[in-house]
Amino acid sequence: MAISRRHALGSIGALAASAIARRVLGASQTPGDAWPQFRGNPRLTGVAASALPPTLTLLWSYDSGDVLDSSAAIVGGIAYIGAGDGHLVALDLSTGKPRWKYATSTLLGESSPAVSGGVAYIGDMDGILHAVNIADGAKLWTFKTTGEIKSSPIVVRDTLLIGSYDTRLYALDARGGRLRWTVETKGPVHATLAVLGETVFIAGCDSVFRAIRIANGTQAYQIDVGSYVGSSPVVEGDRAFFGTYDNEVVALDLRARKVLWRFSDPAHQFPFYSSAALSQGRVIIGGRDKYVRALDAATGKSVWAFLTKARVDSSPAIVGGRVYVGSSDGQLYVLDERTGQKRSEFNAGDAITASPAIAAGRLVVGARNGIVYCLG
Q: Is residue 34 classed as helix, strand or coil in its secondary structure?
């Protein structure tokens, strides 16, 4: 049942998982006062540490003037988000008022900003990566690839990692944009890269999962997935999880370098474009079959499934026993992490394909009507 924007979300639920899953697959959290990149942290777990109030209200909204497929980053009390018209916008997290707007001079797609060391990075549809001074929105440098960028940048110490539709993964000096190395794949690099330790992982459009050494760009190993992959992987311990266009969610054993399990629902054969969240031994992911699903991370068995009214390309964010995820039916759903029961929903007025960002007691998400919403 739909509720008003000021309706209480209900009590916080707790999620129990198996002892094995807890030992092997404990979730990494994003620091409570920041959500500095797509999925919150380099492992792409989608788990926040900042508590949201039990009753969410609409604090402010901002009309960007164009479609929003980019997900927000939140750092230092500022929300950064890319609008379809090509502007990277910095919004005051308390008021929603713009601090500055940076024009890329082209269109922005799904690439979501990463903020590190006083710089915001974002890729555009002309294949240009932009580095912007967060103090004033001034351009610091740009780097040109030869294909559109839908992947979101990742910063590891002083190295910036980004994928391009020109089939390459790029490693750049984050301070000046100098090219350090490239890795060529056999298909567009659409997904955002996941990082664990000194290794970056690519789930590719060429059906191959690659582990690349950050230091020099050499390949450590690869695993044949057998499926076109559009979603970004979440990695933890010696496991990786992601959805595929062959209507499956796949778990990889990175130590044995093989597929651990595959989940597919024979009754609902639709691709998975959403990127999974990993929390308390469960993989939570949206599907184009309109479902949000929780799978046991150790076995791939279904734990629960929640049906929305349209496909779910938005990637879930998790905090305080709640799952926050958008749907193309225009709703932001709040689900109990343990049971999948709906606690509330927020009507954004248009499809939500971007993913929620959660930090400092606020949730920020954009809709395809161009409006950025802040709830808290």
A: coil
